[in-house]
Amino acid sequence: TGLRDWFYDKWQGPITKLDIINHLVLLNNFFTDNYNPVIWSLAQEMRISIVFPLLFLLFYKQSWKKTILFAMSFSLIGIFLNM
C-alpha cells in the first residue's frame, strides 16, 4: 500500500521565511503546495473570528436598513473581486 499521490504532491518546495510570516499574519493563500493542505483553513477561521466581531461592533447601532445596504454592498464587492 502507500500514501496517495495528493500526499506526495505536497511539500514540493522549501518553506521560506516569507511563507511562515504570511501564515502567522494570516496573509496566506487558499491553496498552496508549501505546507499541509489542512493548515490553510486555520488562517481562514482566524480571519472570520476577527472580522465578524468587528463587523458586529460597526453595525450594532446602525439602522437595519443601513446594515442590509452595507451587507449587500460587501457581498457585491466580494463577487466582483472573485470574477
TrEMBL record:
<keyword id="KW-0812">Transmembrane</keyword>
<protein>
    <submittedName>
        <fullName>Acyltransferase</fullName>
    </submittedName>
</protein>
<feature type="transmembrane region" description="Helical">
    <location>
        <begin position="38"/>
        <end position="60"/>
    </location>
</feature>
<keyword id="KW-0808">Transferase</keyword>
<keyword id="KW-0012">Acyltransferase</keyword>
<keyword id="KW-1133">Transmembrane helix</keyword>
<dbReference type="GO" id="GO:0016746">
    <property type="term" value="F:acyltransferase activity"/>
</dbReference>
<feature type="transmembrane region" description="Helical">
    <location>
        <begin position="67"/>
        <end position="82"/>
    </location>
</feature>
<keyword id="KW-0472">Membrane</keyword>
